[in-house]
Amino acid sequence: MISFLLFILLGLVVGGFGTLIGAGGGFLLTPLLLVFYPSMPTQTVTAISMFAVLFNSSSGSLAYAYMKRIDYKTGIIFAIATSPGSIIGTFLTQMIDRNLFDTIFGVFMLVFAFIIAFKSKSGDKSNHIKKNGFCNVVRELKDREGNKVKFSFNMLAGILISIGVGFISGLLGIGGGIVHVPALVFLGFPAHFATATSHFVLAFSSLSSVIVHLNDGSLNNYFPMAICIAIGTIVGAQIGARLSKRIKGSVIMLCLSAALALVSLRILFMGISGMFF
After folding, report:
1. DSSP state of 126
2. How far apart are CA 185 and CA 82, in angstroms?
3. What is the DSSP string of 223-261?
4. Is the pLDDT of residue 257 over 90?
5. Domain that holds residue 272
6. Averaged pLDDT score across all residues of the chain
7. What H or E segment, with its residue span, contains residue 217?
8. I need a labelling partner for 221 at 20 to 30 A (CA). Which of 102, 141, 188, 193 fits?
9. Residues forming a β-bridge with 136
């Protein structure tokens, strides 16, 4: 009983922070599972994480929808683009050695931690509107509180990024938000709308991955754990979405960077130690 409550609490924490920064919580849950369950198969780690991301992103999307911060037109296009990569990445997890997986995961997260920290201030800035140009798109959005934003971005670049995000999401079990949020900000999205739209996309990409994992039996022996964590992420998502209204975009990006750096160093150490010692 106590272990189930701890799993729910774990889901609440990772779900709340994941929704706050639009990453879905998988980037925190996966490294925690890697640390505390060193013998757990790679595909099971990613399966539990993506299962939690599915419920977390679905709950968070409902909260962000109420706030009117989701760019649905763009989100649907990006969601379609992420699905094939997510399915391919999910299948590949069964072929990767655990130590190699830890090393790849650690390097990937550390690189993005530095990139996000370097670019964090762009989350509070409005970008230059480019109406002309190949595949340039202009969006005008207004949230429930009456805040209006106008921004432009390259749709083709966003689609290509989303394909890669889907692959990384399925392969590493992190939901892909840690890539998608900064990518959307760099493309031109205001940070708060980037986190909301990313969460909307995560709900679809994680569903594709979860279907594959349910089919291959990766969750069979850990289904109670996955359910408890998922319950926690549902509640955490609502808390994180509401907290996002009180925090500047640049602070959100810096929080994401710090969290990535801390967990990546730990996972990288585990992976390298396992491969060479």
Report:
1. P
2. 18
3. HHHHHHHHHHHHHHHHHHHHHGGGS-HHHHHHHHHHHHH
4. no
5. 2-276
6. 81
7. none
8. 102
9. 154
Cα gap 228→10, rounded to integer Å:
9
- What tens digit of pLDDT does each residue of 20-51 get? 776 667 777 887 888 788 888 888 888 898 89
How many domains does the structure of the chain reveal?
1
CA distance 120 to 114: 10
Q: How far is CA 189 from CA 73, 83, 166, 235, 245, in A?
A: 14, 22, 19, 27, 16
What percent of the chain has a predicted confidence (pLDDT) above 70?
A: 86
- Neighbouring CB atoms inside 10 A of 232's CB total 26
Categorize the per-residue pLDDT at 1 as very low, low, confident or very high, splitting at 50, 70 and 90.
Answer: low
Distance CA 253, CA 58 (A): 22
What is the Cα–Cα distance from 160 to 272, expressed in whole angstroms?
A: 31
**Residue 91 Cα distances to 27, 85, 118, 158, 172, angstroms:** 19, 10, 33, 24, 11
Q: Which of 162, 165, 173 is nearest to 209 (CA)?
A: 173
